[in-house]
Amino acid sequence: MRSENINAQEFRLLRDFIEAECGVLLGNEKAYLIENRLSNLAKGCGCRTFGEFYVKLKNSLRSDRIRSAVTDAITTHETLWFRDGYPFRVLQECLLPEFQKHYRAETRDSIRIWSAACSTGQEPYSIAIAALEFYLKAGLGAESCYSQVNILATDVSEKVLSAAQTGRYDINAMSRGLPPGHLERYFRKDGNEWILEPKIKNMVTFRQINLKEPISGGIGSFDIIFLRNVTIYFSEEFKKILFSRVSRLMNRGGYLFLGAGETVGGYSDAFDIIEYEGTIFYRIKS
């Protein structure tokens, strides 16, 4: 590239392209982020300016890998094990006991959980571990957990999904949020990496889904949805659209978890607020 600096027009064009492509809304102060994360991609495409790179993107097919490369570069993949703690405590202390009552009454035959924007897999695998520990503590047995709890994990990024499906993590990833004892209990060491126990890994199904697009392909409905630390990157208008879509994917009495700084307030009236020991989550209205 002749210059790695982006001008105002180039920023506006690429910002709007990115929002249309994956929903991420970049404020005017984020020009540096496009410069830092997309300059190498632009160079690799033989583009001399960010303007030329924009034209190349606009003229590319939706299936072109350059588009997915831009999404991979722009989206934030920050994650850790059992992030914030409280959703997993609520899962074990409130939701799974409630669903077990339904299961025994034969009003429920499975527990379906969706981890949206799952990044490299720590969230859905944390859900699986939390569910297994509940089943074991309740004397229900591991096999009941494996057969009853179904977890779908999705992300827009093909790259992070590929990493998540391996169930392999380096020591840096393992040092972030994993409770004491879990490393030895649910992982085995392989060189410089740790590999997740296959039965935990097999509880999770991964699929590429772009939340910006209408959800298709028959993913079914869910009892619990984790939509955490992702809506903060979306526009006010798209949050309304997304919460509307999510509400239609929830089973009766289903629950929604958002990130600590996120809310449905002002965006959707489809949910009731639930408080438990100082934490807030949501239940779909009957």
Q: If you had to describe this structure to a student in words, what would you say it looks like?
A:
This protein is an alpha/beta fold. The chain has two domains: 67 residues, Chemotaxis Receptor Methyltransferase Cher, domain 1; 199 residues, Rossmann fold (3-Layer(aba) Sandwich), CATH 3.40.50.150. Strands 6-2-1-7-8-10-9 form a seven-stranded mixed beta sheet, with helices on both faces. The longest helix is centred in the first third of the chain and has 19 residues. The model has no long low-confidence stretch (mean pLDDT 93).
Question: Which labels suit this protein?
Answer:
286 residues; alpha/beta; Chemotaxis Receptor Methyltransferase Cher, domain 1; Rossmann fold; 2 domains; 7-stranded mixed beta sheet; 3-stranded antiparallel beta sheet; 12 helices
CATH architecture of the largest domain: 3-Layer(aba) Sandwich
Any idea what the shape is? globular
Q: How many whole angstroms does the radius of gyration measure?
A: 20 Å
List how many beta strands DSSP finds: 10
Order of helices and strands: HHHHHEHHEHEHHEEHEEHEEE
Largest sheet, described in full?
7 strands, mixed
Helix count, per DSSP?
12
Contiguous runs where pLDDT drops below 50 for at least 5 residues: none
**Assembly state (oligomeric):** single chain
Structural class: alpha/beta
Q: What is the name of the CATH class of the largest domain? A: Alpha Beta
User: Could you tell me the strand content as a percent range?
Assistant: 15-25%
Residue share in helix: 40-55%
